[in-house]
C-alpha cells in the first residue's frame, strides 16, 4: 500500500519552525524568507522578488549588501572579529569616533561612545545627562518611540504593542506635548498652533515636572514610529532655548532620521539647532548592529572609566561597515538623492490624494515620507483597517511596506537611498493597485 506524501516547500517548513521555535512576541511584517538582497531588491527562497520600501525599518540607507560595505567587512574578518575595545583597542573604533565628531553639528569639542542598539544609545545618553546634571527626570514627547528596554519603554508613548503588561517602568520619565499639524484644532493656522503647543509645553513644566529636576529632553527631530510627524523650526528652537535656559541637556534622537534619510546627514540640521547629545544607530552601519552617542566633551566626560560600555559595544565589523557607509554617503551624494526620492514620493502621493478621499495627509522631510489614511478628510478620523489592508496587499504582491503611528494609520516610506527611479515606480504601481482595491 502506497501512502500519498505531500511535499512541503522549504518556505513552509521554515515558517512552521518559526512558529514552533521563535518567540511569538517577535513581529513579522512579511512571513516569506529572504534568500538574497541587493540594493533595493530582496529575493525570497522561492525566487519571488520584492521592491524594498521598508529598508529594515530605516536601517539600509546605502542599500542591501553595498559592495563597499561587503568588501570592508570581509577584509576585517581576515584580521580579527572582536578583541573587545575594553580589553584591547582597535583603530576602526577610534577612526569612526573621529569622523562622527567631525560630522555632528556644532563647533564644540565632542566625544563618542559606540554601542549596539538604538535603545542602548538612548539609555546611555540618559546616563550621561544624569551624571552631568545630577538630576533624574527625563522628558520625551507625545507619540515618541525610543526603544523596548525598561527605561526606553518608559520614554516611549505608544502603549500597544510596546508597553502593555511590561511595567512597572523606570520612574521619572515624562511626556511633553509635541505638535501634530494635520490633526491640529480646526480653524487654527500653523503659527497659531505652534503658539498653542508652546504654551502647553510651558504649562507642562509647571504642572507635571519642574525644569530644575530634569536631566534631559529627548526629541526625535522627525517622529518615526509616532507617524513621521515633522515639527516646525520654531518649536524645535523653542525647546532648545528652554533647555539652555534651565540647564537641561537637549538630546536629538537621530536613530531613524540620521545618515541622509531626511536630505541632510542629521535631521536636526534642518532646524538650525545644535544638540548637546545625539543618539545614532540604524543606517550607521548598513545592517550591522552598531549605535552611538555623540556629545559635547564637557558632558560625555562627566562619566568615569568603566561607567559606560559593554562586551560587544563598537564591534570591529560594525565600525568598518560604518566607515564605509560614511564614504558612500559622500561619494554617491545620498543627501541629494534623498531629496530627489522624497520629491518623487510626494508627487505620486499627492496624485493619489486627489483620487482617494481616504488619503488625508502627505508629508515628508527628504525621503522620510508618509501618507496618513483616514475615514474621510472632514473628520480626519484614523483608519487603521484600510492602512493594514494596503500594507498586506503590498507585502503579498512584491513590495515590502510598513505602517506606523499611534493609531496605526500611517503608510511610511523608508526606501534605500540607492533605489532607482524604475524601482520606485514599480513600487508605486503596487501601492496604486492596493489603493484601487479599497
From TrEMBL:
One of its GO terms (biological process) is gamma-aminobutyric acid metabolic process. Pathway: Amino-acid degradation; 4-aminobutanoate degradation. Its EC number is 2.6.1.19, 2.6.1.22. It catalyses: (S)-3-amino-2-methylpropanoate + 2-oxoglutarate = 2-methyl-3-oxopropanoate + L-glutamate; 4-aminobutanoate + 2-oxoglutarate = succinate semialdehyde + L-glutamate. It comes from the Bacteria. PROSITE patterns: AA_TRANSFER_CLASS_3. Its cofactor is pyridoxal 5'-phosphate. Keywords: Aminotransferase, Pyridoxal phosphate, Transferase. CDD domains: OAT_like. Coiled coil: none annotated. GO terms for molecular function: (S)-3-amino-2-methylpropionate transaminase activity; 4-aminobutyrate:2-oxoglutarate transaminase activity; identical protein binding; pyridoxal phosphate binding. Belongs to the class-III pyridoxal-phosphate-dependent aminotransferase family. PANTHER family: AMINOTRANSFERASE CLASS III, LEUCINE_METHIONINE RACEMASE. This is (S)-3-amino-2-methylpropionate transaminase. It comes from Terrilactibacillus tamarindi. The gene is gabT.
